[in-house]
Amino acid sequence: MRGHPWLTLITVAVGVMMVALDGTIVAIANPAIQKDLGATFAEVQWITNGYFLALAVSLITAGKLGDRFGHRQTFLIGVVGFAAASGAIGLSSSIALVVTFRVLQGLFGALLMPAALGLLRATFPAEKLNMAIGIWGMVIGASTAGGPILGGVLVEHVNWQSVFFINVPVGILAVVLGVMILLDHRAENAPRSFDLLGIALLSAAMFCLLWALIKAPEWGWGDGKTWAFIVVSVAGFALFALWEKRVKEPLIPLGLFRSIPLSAGVVLMVLMAIAFMGGLFFVTFYLQNVHGMSPIDAGLHLLPLTGMMIVGSPLAGAVITKVGPRIPLAGGMACTAIAMYGMSTLETDTGSGVMSLWFALLGLGLAPVMVGATEVIVGNAPMELSGVAGGLQQSAMQIGGSLGTAVLGAVMASKVDSDLAGNWADAGLPPLTAAQEHQASEAVQVGVPPVAPGMPDAIAAKVTDVAHDTFISGMSMASLVAAGVAVVAVLVAFLTKRGANAEAGAGVGHI
Fold first, then answer.
1. Please, is 349 exposed, middle or buried when counting C-beta atoms within 10 Å of its C-beta (0-12, 13-18, 19+)?
2. Handedness of CA 375, 377, 379, 383 (dihedral sign)
3. What is the dihedral of CA 432, 441, 48, 219, to 10 degrees?
4. Nearest-CA neighbor of 491 among 252, 326, 247?
5. Separation CA 290–CA 370 (nearest Å)
6. Residue 185, beta-bridge partner list
7. If you ran DSSP here, which 8-state letter would residue 289 be given?
8. Cα separation of 2 and 9, whole Å?
9. Which residue in 155, 91, 119 sits closest to 16, CA to CA?
10. Among 105, 118, 241, residue whose Cα is nearest residue 191
């Protein structure tokens, strides 16, 4: 039983499910946490930002730890730490403690994710690796999309603490399975030392980049602070690259990127995440604030997307095994581009059937990309760097997600700012002061009508129509940009090929 490939897959899937679920489930709990702990809006934002920053900045270093000490140990430590931090959040009585333990959750989640991919790479033979990664991608897709539904049920019928407590029994199950089933695979030429300066430079560069993306909507893209962090980030990446050429055992051997398919896989993962995360960001506001759905109803309306990812991921794995990744990846991004174009045509009164069609097509497009790009990155890396490759894959997805939210958010804000005043005047509404227009624009960017208390019903109805129409025009523009990104990704997909080192798996020495 120990080391059995499919039992290994089940074990790592249980652990990965916790981390993927936590990426979206907590958003539903934030309003309840804010009310219960008396937190400000800025403090609540840190519940998400703290987790996300810790996770994204640590992923590649965590992958290296797995390569050095073995993925089994790294995975188990990640699961224990993640579950313990989750339990501690549920017991927290202040927002400061919640944010602190969320950062710890992110750090332990970073240990867990690349280790899971490293274990799959080492356990499965080449001809079955794509199917395994397909099921792994299915678990991530289902958990990410299912988070808002489960979160809504728990917050509505139990309390916000239950959103975190649920990770404790899941973590215990993952540890029990891990101790019984996981076998430690370590490559004979695994790294024996740590590139501490490389870790510091990469972490600082990643932090500055992500911090600039997180704060850009608040500071503005033209603000000196935003660009200062971007410049420091670029300088950090440049210094990291120079140092990696000199150190004996680098954190990321830059020779990895001589592999065009691996580099294309990383770029493809970034572009996919920009289109997916950025596009989905506005869809949740569209469903809840324009259509007036509850969080649970909004989650249920996204089931076609989730369902297609669940069905499509293992099928994509099977197809990629037969024909290679190039055609499925290009086809997947083409479907994504068409779906994002379709979402640009949504109106305030679009019915559920039409929405479901575009959501389903998006899920169908994303499935082969999630599976194929992961296999291209991990399969084209040497066995002794499978953890670093897993960290690269996850980092590309996290950076793409933040870029998508930030860049498409800027597109949305720009379109709303340019259209709102004209739409307001055309509706015959009384003119707004500059301050009122700014406040109204911020509300409209998330689909909320700026209806003042005591406003007459007739005027409130006009304000609502203007707000929703302006939001729709902004979402349409953002969706078209996302479609354009997906078209570029189709071209990148043709640079990929099957993992040249995938055959190294399943034949590695057991420790």
1. exposed
2. negative
3. -80
4. 326
5. 30
6. 510
7. I
8. 12
9. 119
10. 118
Beta-ladder partners of 276: none
Alpha-carbon span 266 to 58, nearest angstrom:
17
pTM beyond 0.70: the answer is: yes
Angle formed at CA 176 by CA 152 and CA 173, multiple of 5 degrees? 10
Record the tokens describing residue 438, joined without a space: 């700014």
Alpha carbon distance 107, 250 (integer Å): 21
Query: How many residues comprise the chain?
Result: 511
Task: Give whole-number Cα distances, 416 to 198, 263, 448, 466, 482, in Å.
Answer: 42, 36, 12, 11, 17
pLDDT tens for the chain, 511 residues long, are 787 888 999 999 999 888 888 877 887 787 788 888 887 766 777 887 788 888 888 888 888 888 888 889 999 999 999 999 999 999 998 999 999 999 999 999 989 888 888 888 888 887 787 778 878 877 877 787 677 778 878 888 888 899 999 999 999 999 999 999 998 776 566 666 678 888 899 889 988 988 888 788 778 778 899 999 999 999 999 999 999 888 888 888 888 788 888 889 899 999 998 888 767 778 878 888 889 887 678 778 888 888 888 888 888 888 888 888 899 999 999 999 999 999 999 998 888 899 999 999 998 998 888 888 888 888 778 877 778 888 888 888 888 887 887 788 888 888 988 898 888 888 888 888 888 888 888 888 888 888 888 888 888 899 999 999 999 999 999 999 999 999 999 999 998 887 655 444 444 433 3
In terms of Cα–Cα distance, which of 185, 134, 142 is closest to 18? 142
Asked if 462 and 427 count as a contact pair (C-beta separation under 8 A), the reply is yes
